[in-house]
Specification:
about 20% strand, 5-stranded mixed sheet, alpha+beta
Amino acid sequence: MSRRVRSMRRTLLTGVFLVVSSSMGISALLGFFSASHEMEELFDARLAQSARITERLLLRYLETLPTQNTRGVIYQEWESEYPNAKLDSKGLGMDNDRHLTSYGHEFERNLAFQLVADDGTLLLRSPSAPPLQQEDLRAGFGQIQQNHHTWRTFTLHNEARRSWLVVAERDDERRELAGKMSAVSMLPLIITLPLLLGLLWILVSRAVSPLSQLARAIAERHPANLTPLQIPQRSKEVGLLIGELNRLMHTVQDTLERERQFTNEAAHELRTPLAVLRLYSETARSAEDEEQRNQALGKMLTALDRSDRLLRQLLTQARLDNQQQLESHPLDLREVLRETLANLAPLALKKDQLIGLEAELPLQISGQSTLLDLLFTNLIDNAIRYTPVKGEITVSLQQEGHLAIVRIEDNGPGVPTELLPRLSERFFRVNPQLADGVGLGMAIVQRIALLHHAKIEIRNRPQGGLEVSVSLPLL
């Protein structure tokens, strides 16, 4: 079953919205509780301050009016001046505007007081004050339950007057006020949340729009069109992506070009050997005697050997062209040269040539032994092929600074100076008559050297012959 492909834009927007909404929701909730707590602290401070002011006023009131009926309710004359002020079940004005009434503010009646003697005798009280029990007379903050309501109280004890002042405030109204004020403080945060989400939607959409533009540009291209993408880069990340895509298309284009070149070269180079094979096969079939037939068959075998060598060289060249990097290992370069010379020594003996290795110290390099063996095999094989009978070939290994230098010297005819730069060209041969090579050996050598970060230098020796130097970095 195929997995459902998700939209990056939708996933990003959903994630951002959830994170922002959750963060702002948690912040609003924490802010609400924090504001409510601070409002409760403020109300308690106001209640304590009101108690201290009320105590002084009431004691002075008693001193001024000693004949006052201390067991009655004061401020009755104040209420009688407003007979139209109706009270609801909570003791609040029933006016349409719950904040302002004909006798003041609706929350005035939520604040009540009582002045009680030490023996429990009620001295003064406000009309809305809840009844007190003796156990309620404790200094400081407290709570009183009355008629399914909770009152927040603050009590002061005057030892000189032997009296208690209890100032009380309805707790539910305190919570209502605190909730309203906290909600008002959170209102800007709630209002800005939709605006913030809308801005995030626009920003995310604009941020991912270059990806959609890039997808459309790629979809509209022909598969054979590997030219670089030309898209206005509005972000660094998309620019890097376009750069990598262009690099990939350049690599693919180079690979296709090498394949076309390989196909053309193989078709061109194999045409002649196949024509020669056909000619010799027809000659062998129409030969009148055994000697003529054997000569034709011998030439066919030579042509087959050359075709086989050509195919192997072409395949090696194609494999190296498609190889971008090596899986290198530490190698002893002296041992690599010894094995290569051991394999090629029979070819030198056939021509009665003297071949030797001059390497006093082992030198460690990083590379691939198979490819290095192929590199030195091609160079030494060329020296054997172009050096005359009883010639001399010397292979030396030396260290120069941080490089290992391999020199292959012969006393053959050398190469005209003007042709030295062309030796690495494919299918180029200096003297086709002197050897049966196919002209790919030096091209393969150059490619292997490039993969090993090596340098190839070819020059004619003053005393005659050719010198090839290979410089490899040491470990």
